[in-house]
Amino acid sequence: xxxxxxxxxxxxxxxxxxxxxxxxxxxxxxxxxxxxxxxxxxxxxxxxxxxxxxxxxxxxxxxxxxxxxxxxxxxxxxxxxxxxxxxxxxxxxxxxxxxxxxxxxxxxxxxxxxxxxxxxxxxxxxxxxxxxxxxxxxxxxxxxxxxxxxxxxxxxxxxxxxxxxxxxxxxxxxxxxxxxxxxxxxxxxxxxxxxxxxxxxxxxxxxxxxxxxxxxxxxxxxxxxxxxxxxxxxxxxxxxxxxxxxxxxxxxxxxxxxxxxxxxxxxxxxxxxxxxxxxxxxxxxxxxxxxxxxxxxxxxxxxxxxxxxxxxxxxxxxxxxxxxxxxxxxxxxxxxxxxxxxxxxxxxxxxxxxxxxxxxxxxxxxxxxxxx
Length: 372
Known about the structure:
Residues 4-246 form the ABC transporter domain. Pfam families: ABC_tran. InterPro entries: AAA+_ATPase, ABC_transporter-like_ATP-bd, ABC_transporter-like_CS, ABC_transpr_MalK/UgpC-like, Mo/tungstate-bd_C_term_dom, P-loop_NTPase. The protein is α+β, with helices and mostly antiparallel strands. It folds into two domains: 4-241, P-loop containing nucleotide triphosphate hydrolases (Rossmann fold, 3-Layer(aba) Sandwich), CATH 3.40.50.300; 249-364, no CATH class. The chain is built from ten helices and 21 strands. A hairpin with a 2-residue loop joins β12 and β13 (268-271). α2 runs parallel beside α5 and α5 (148-160) runs parallel beside α6 (178-195). The two termini are 37 Å apart.
């Protein structure tokens, strides 16, 4: 196993212009720093083009950074060749040799490195045992006869047989259908915990990142916006982007104006608690509220016109969806809450966030609270 330090890594592609949403050019990686402890799985999540796959390639040695360093166990490997880094990579397309059975895919590493057949046989057998029930049956089949999940298990086994010090996984289950993706995700997580191999796991799927990672790194525009556990990202986001990116249904963000301890929003005003009113600026702001952060049927509530209701019986709750002005709002309600076309809502100020009107910095973050 290896600890990994990524220090201020920058990477710009000369042949391809990478453009911000505002039209400005930016590097593919713009001063990225991230650490992974031995045996830790860190999920890197972000939208397409944010730089997460480029980061994986730089850590693997498939790309070299323009500046910055990559360290394994404190040793600088920034310009060390990939085959000398002891890295196992798993991709979304599995990358199995189609003419070889599962066993041949696992043993091929030993063939190209002039290792003995005895060692290849022993390591393949040991890996099959470690991979768990049913894996040995996959070794006698060619990839075309395997399901997507089975192919991915063989691809992971091919990495494990090499005894890597670091796993790099790039969208490994994105090609699977929803049901198979969920089952394979559970299997991969069990294997990562069992082998305790340091892992950098790249995905665009928030739920997958939460499930797989001990910690999560949220990327945007070639930068890491925040790193932390899901609870930390959810409850104490570093900025408005992280606040709205993490969580489903997403946080409602409502333009508002603070004046004399009251918050004016479309259709109503809310009274601020005295201690919070004294710490916030007056004037234009944006109020952020997650679904569980609303109070229903309060006297000074703003009217929410309900356009859709989703019941979740397993959680004994439901979501009410509507608009407050132009803001999309989701509100958690009891599962047996009566059907209404309009409800009155007020933020629970112990759970509400306040952000700048024209920027992303938070004026108020309530901190970690019990979610439900």
